[in-house]
Amino acid sequence: MQTNQDLSTQFRHGVLPQTTSDEFSRQEFVKSLKFHLASKVSLGNQDAFEARAKPAFTKTTGAEPETYADIRRAMSDDPYYRFWSAMQRNSQEMMWKSVQIPVERQLPELIAKAGEAGGKGTLKLNPELEIPRYHRGVDIHCMPGGYHTEFTADDVANGAVYDSAVYIYAMGRMGPLNSDIGDTTIAWIKENHPDFKPRRILDMGCSVGHSTLSYCDAWPEAEIFAIDVGAPVLRYAHARAESMGKSVHFSQQNAEATDFEDGTFDLIVSHILVHETSNAAMRNIMRECNRLLTPGGLAVHAETPPYRDLPAYDAFMLDWDTRNNNEPYWGASHELVTADIAAECGFDPAKSFEAYQPSAFEATERRTKVFQGGDFGGGGAWWLWGVQK
Amino acid sequence: MAETITLQKKARGERPQYFADPAIDKALSITLALAGEVAVLRDRIDTIERLAEAGQSPTRAAVDAYVPDAAVRAARDAWRDSYLDTVLRIIHQEREELEQRAADTKPYAAVIDEVEAGG
Ligand SMILES: C[S@@+](CC[C@H](N)C(=O)[O-])C[C@H]1O[C@@H](n2cnc3c(N)ncnc32)[C@H](O)[C@@H]1O
Fold first, then answer.
1. Which residues constitute the domain of residue A332?
2. Residue nearest atom 27 of ligand 1, based on CA coordinates
3. How far apart are CA A115 and CA A177, in angstroms?
């Protein structure tokens, strides 16, 4: 039984997969490789750009690369960039492999534990739910099977895989509970709406509940609901929450069209959901937020910064995932303009907002302070956008 | 354990090809995986040494069950970082060269501006 617990390691709740020392070392290697690439190798791309890709682009086109798309064209064949990209892609695939090994080994036990989870909160699955097209096309961020595939009855595998992998992916910089995005969103809400007391809160695209559980502590009086399309992540989320004594009502639903009644929620949040949907779906989600919110209620979505806020070179690096990490909507979702979406979806655009909030989790020493592909959580801030109804 | 449930190994979606010859993509994947397995072995040796130093016998069960504390994890992080400096030497070499060339592409006037601005 692994019991070591401190702020520099993942919290061992009741359904976290156990690892042998070799399995743990393999995962630690991936974390180190990712950090090495982000902090020591990735920087060389900018030198390759200045030293050779930019002059070559200027020579052939007669103009300097200006936009992030220009920079992508200039860099696409650069040998340093290609080699870094190849290593980055491998680090991602190695990450999934390193967490699949222990999950595969103990899956029957994990399923049994999840089945015994207590009843502070609830879990409602809907086997009839159609998995959206944007999740069936490619497996997002290269997780084999995505959030929804079931490899056996009552499966929790990809919940367990996702939980372990996110800690490695963020290199621990989202805290022992991987909760930084939720904690940061809460901090922003409390700072900007000090008197806000939501009675019912909905977390859309909750996955295994990394962000969801923070809302239980932030507003202990509130009822917390969380939805996702994937059954394995929801079963795992429920078991994880129960093992930590948190009460959440999880249900398998598409955020574009839920079964909640009009005006059910004072607060609707999502954390890194939007970039995994589509242009049509995210608008449906915003219309659904409009329907579900009470007057004065808030919708807040957390993501990485829009490209317009970044220097073109940084936007190019942040855009890496679009083409290299099975994130087809990453690029387009980083071009969204909040006021326009609000207006399109029936909100008052004057009540929309865009904000930056520094990461709630203090992990200053391992942060690169840049937004770049393969360095998730390294920027030290999250971009929040949304609207008040 | 009664049943083994096999998880899907490949993510759906076309895998990008990074090199002209797909065999290079495969060779790089294998090399990085091997680098990982060497690090796993090194941790295992480190565990054996630490158990022995603590007067415990480094049986397979003891090694498999070993959970490094924060100090041991930090030491291993530092080891892996310098290990990767060594394994990825050719990349770091190229990076240094590009850094020098990028600095040389800067106009001399920009260097004056930088110094005057206090940089
Ligand atoms: C990156 S994960 C979310 C992580 C989580 N919110 C957190 O803070 O850690 C995105 C999740 O959104 C879910 N999702 C995607 N589209 C959805 C939709 N239309 N309705 C509900 N959930 C959706 C996916 O199944 C996935 O679990």
1. 172-388
2. A207
3. 22
Q: Is the CB of A258 under 6 A from ligand 1?
A: no
Sign of CA dihedral B57, B60, B65, B70: positive
Residue A3: pLDDT over 60: no
Number of domains present in the structure of chain B: 1
Chain B (56-95) residues lying within 8 Å, Cβ to Cβ, of chain A: 63-70, 73-74, 76-77, 80-81, 84-85, 88, 91-92, 94-95
| Set of chain A residues whose Cβ sits within 8 Å of the Cβ of B10 | 144
Rounded to whole angstroms, how far apart are CA atoms A311 and A303?
18
Domain membership flag for residue A25 = no
CB B72 within 8 A of CB B54: no
- Render pLDDT for A74-100 as a digit per residue (tens, 0 to 9): 999 999 999 999 999 999 999 999 999
Rounded Cα distance between A217 and A213, Å, is: 7
pLDDT tens, position by position, A221-264: 999 999 999 999 999 999 999 999 999 999 999 999 999 999 99
Name the nearest CA neighbour of A220 among A198, A239, A242, A241.
A198
The structure's pTM equals 0.95
Contact flag A28-B28 (C-beta cutoff 8 Å): no
Separation CA A269–CA A293 (nearest Å): 11
Contact yes or no for A3/A9 (Cβ under 8 A): no
CATH of the domain at A328: 3.40.50.150
What CA–CA distance (Å, rounded) separates A228 from A147? 9
Radius of gyration of chain B (CA): 23
Q: pLDDT category, A379, cuts 50, 70, 90?
A: confident
CB half-sphere exposure, A134, CA atoms < 13 A: 17
Could you tell me if residue A327 is inside a domain? yes
Paired sense of beta strands A265-271 and A223-228, if any:
unpaired
